[in-house]
């Protein structure tokens, strides 16, 4: 398998965690999102993913896009170390937790949106960071409520083994820490992030451990 | 089942289509997103969904959130009229198409974001609409490329029966039409939208057909 990745992309980070948890070896193809206006906007990369986003995964003769779709595909084709629970209600919960991050939080705070706020909208750095903190905190507030109010939450987001929800939580916390978001209001998120940090699969997926890390 | 819905919410619209396609009866509980500052921000609704978003679905003794997680749950628990293909690659494709809308497009153009642009950011109506058109067109461009360049696209997004991807496409086109986005650059999307419009399940889910329509 070939993973088009950028060390700091949190969507790529999710997929790296999933690949590592399942013990699937892969070739990392770095796509630099800043150099020369962004390598993801080159014709070569548009041919891989017309969405001009990372990650993309070449597997089984096709190119898959969208981090959550990729993780579900990996889970279906490599059933060892399942990343979704065996019951339909459990799967619905894990997917909803993942989507709270992947649909409601990250899309509002990712690189292309921050670039759009600074460029076409002409926002100041301070106003851009206000935007970042607003949506990041709103997402973390909801995720914390979902986790803290459920008996299904265990050592990890759902029970005592990592799931797709943890694959999303850890990169989101990495972003929060990078931009000095105070995690004190989110003790359950912080506790789960620490539990994940003990696991080699999560450690090896960390941005600082990537071949393209700066 | 009880669906917390708003006639014009495109995430709720997705779930209404899925329920109708499967022939699942449900009670619609309207949550007005504008009246009195938004009924989704009341304590009563926060107890239903701390995310303060629609839809939420009460089913099997629990409350489910996140439209795509809800649709997958309905598909797993009501296998008739499957909304995901039988093969893993097909499921990955349908999920990626759905997520192109639900992760990359809709979160940037939904009500809470538009309200934030006008309120805290103080953008003019014109600048707000520029933002709307920018992200809507970017999402439609990617979706069109994904659909037009694949032999898997049929009468619908994936083959000749509706899937979860069509449940997302139709509400997105409804939004585009509402804000006068020109669909000419997206002929495949427009063709699939017209095919869906022939189906009673899609017709009955249309915002204009809802009990809370204005």
From TrEMBL, chains A, B:
MF GO annotations: glutathione transferase activity; maleylacetoacetate isomerase activity
SUPFAM superfamilies according to UniProt: GST C-terminal domain-like, Thioredoxin-like
CDD domains assigned: GST_C_Zeta (cd03191), GST_N_Zeta (cd03042)
Keywords, in A-Z order: Isomerase, Pyruvate
Domain GST N-terminal: 1-82
Entries under NCBIfam families matching the protein: maiA (TIGR01262)
Name this polypeptide is given: Maleylacetoacetate isomerase
Organism lineage string: Bacteria, Pseudomonadati, Pseudomonadota, Betaproteobacteria, Burkholderiales
């Amino acid at each position: 398998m070939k993973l088009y990745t950028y060390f700091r992309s949190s969507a790529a980070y999710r997929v790296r965690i999933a690949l590592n948890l399942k013990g699937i070896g892969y070739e990392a193809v770095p796509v630099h999102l800043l150099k020369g206006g962004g390598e993801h906007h080159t014709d070569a990369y548009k041919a891989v993913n017309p969405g001009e986003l990372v990650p993309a995964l070449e597997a089984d003769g096709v190119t898959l896009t969208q981090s959550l779709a990729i993780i579900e595909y990996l889970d279906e084709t490599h059933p060892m170390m399942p990343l979704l629970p065996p019951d339909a209600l459990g799967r619905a919960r894990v997917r909803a937790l993942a989507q709270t991050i992947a649909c409601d939080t990250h899309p509002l705070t990712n690189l292309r949106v921050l670039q759009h706020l600074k460029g076409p909208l002409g926002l100041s750095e301070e106003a851009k960071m206000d935007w970042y903190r607003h949506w990041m905190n709103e997402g973390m507030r909801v995720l914390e409520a979902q986790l803290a109010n459920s008996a299904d939450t265990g050592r990890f987001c759902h029970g005592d083994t990592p799931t797709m929800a943890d694959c999303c939580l850890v990169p989101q916390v990495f972003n929060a820490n990078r931009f000095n978001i105070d995690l004190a209001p989110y003790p359950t998120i912080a506790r789960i992030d620490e539990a994940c940090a003990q696991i080699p699969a999560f450690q090896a997926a960390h941005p600082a451990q990537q071949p393209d890390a700066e």
